[in-house]
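Input chain follows. Return structure tokens only.
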Amino acid sequence: MNDTASTLNHVTSKDGTTIAFDRLGDGPAVVLVSGGSVDRMSNAGVAALLASDFTVFNYDRRGRGPSGDTPPYAIEREIEDIEAVIAAAGGSAFLYGSSSGAALALAAAEQLPGEITKLALWEPPYILDPSARPPADQVEQYTTMLAEGRRGDAAQYFMEKVVKMPPEFVAGARTQPWWAATEALAHTLPYDATIMGDYSLPVDRAKAVTIPTIVLDGGASFGFMGPTADALAKVLPRGERRTLAGQEHNIDPNVLVPALKEFFAV
């Protein structure tokens, strides 16, 4: 019998930070990792649909939602957060990561062998063309803007210089109902920038991840995502590839979840 009711739970990470997560469903454990400029609610639809077959742990990364945050930031602390959630799941789990959260999930899979048994990555935004990558001083830019209290400018910088949204979209973003939530998460933008580094493909890391891994992209997404997914899948020892036709970066859970269920099927 599956229980799809969501219940907020908490675990304590290695450095004492409280990490909050929703637990849904019943079955093999799956942990969901959100991307940049969003919280766990970005994966709520995925969690709800996966809960028919799995126990889903949809957690808020540090600095987001009801999760805590302990400076200084380091990727290693985020990996410890994932490890704490996996411990709550019984010590091993499948892992799904979206966008820069997919890059974090890949790093976690390298560092937590035996704890992560399968890995699914939705459009990790590595960029093969060096000339197309975001500014190299992205972290410093965020740090300056945030120190000056310019959270909105930091969020706009992310849209303009990193995601490279159309100018007309960026121009109207601050008037949208969702802008307040985006601005509220601005302090986490340097976290994801740190995770992505110079946005080059992490070949050595990928080669070290020997568990079954699927790299997914959308057929209507940013043009670089397909070649990136191809290149990453080729260097993963047990990598496979799948393109979901017609899907943009903001994936429809009703399209994504069947692919995840097929991959995670025991």
